[in-house]
User: Fold diphosphomevalonate decarboxylase from Streptococcus suivaginalis.
Amino acid sequence: MTQSVGIARAHTNIALIKYWGKRDKELFLPMNSSLSLTLDAFYTDTKVVFDTAFTEDRFILNGLEQDEKEIRKISRFLDLFREYIGEDRFAVVESLNFVPTAAGLASSASAFAALALATATALNIDLSRQALSSFARRGSGSSTRSLFGGFVEWDMGTCSEDSLARPIDEADWDIGMLVIAVDKAKKKVASREGMDLTVATSPFYQAWVETAAQDLAAIKEAIAERDFEKLGRLTEHNGMKMHATTLSANPPFTYWSAASVRAQEAVRQVREESGLAAYMTMDAGPNVKVLCRASQMEELKRELSVLLPEFQLIESLPGQGASQLTEEEWQQSHSRFQKEVGYEG
Ligand code: PMV
Assistant:
């Protein structure tokens, strides 16, 4: 066959129990298991075309041809699939990111999950979703969890094959997330560098690993019991602990900006004064994500926008797992991208 095509969509996820640190950098094996909520508001659509006529891999992101450095990341990822089945065709990868790139909204999570599914589809590789999640992991750790919807656990596993994601719960019980977008600029310290430095130098790191395992067990209980307060408190505590490890790295660093701290204070104030259930978490960027009740999201948004008038507040509900798209849906996605996001450059 000269040409084969695969198209897929994957949503981002936000970790409630964070993945922070690798025990194997080559295989992307994590130091601890993690758990996330997939979000419907942010996603990546990706089309992969393999063709005997192509003489190199290409990568077009949001309508822009990417440079060699970006192409190398994609090529290395495609190689995992090519080597798996003995494929030697090059590919053109085109992605539309309905996510502000690299602002701690985990665009790499949706990106590599969509690319994994599109590639497996194009090459007709028959893998279970769980097995596919272990391929996605090699692109970026957080993308392991984006193959599934709702609450998803990434089991650290014992080796490459069993370090994979599993769906825990559909999160169809009055759950929402409000993102306080304090800054959409590219992050200053990539998650990869940040976690590597932390593992190597933070004296608190061992405590992180030990308590992350306890937090994970407790949050799974909270989900099984549908205990929102417990879920929220564990989320906030775990996220803050992750960020405490960056402050104790050497040299120390932080993903927080002054605006992040203001946003955190606003969340605390609203929680105390209005009694709304709202718990925050942050990733490798300055934005603050607030876990809340879907039924209270409008009210929470109103309250927060009074305190934080200059920041965009983006609402999201739990999202679905990755799915294949038709050519027609891909065309629609292009039109929507042009209308909603606009091509850069
Ligand atoms: O896999 P990456 O490079 O997207 O790193 C993810 C790191 C955090 O977002 C901070 C935590 C997580 O589990 O998503």
User: Anything to note?
Assistant: Residues 6 and 130 are 19 Å apart (CA to CA). The chain has a mean pLDDT of 95. The first strand starts at residue 3 and ends at 17. The chain has nine helices and 14 strands.
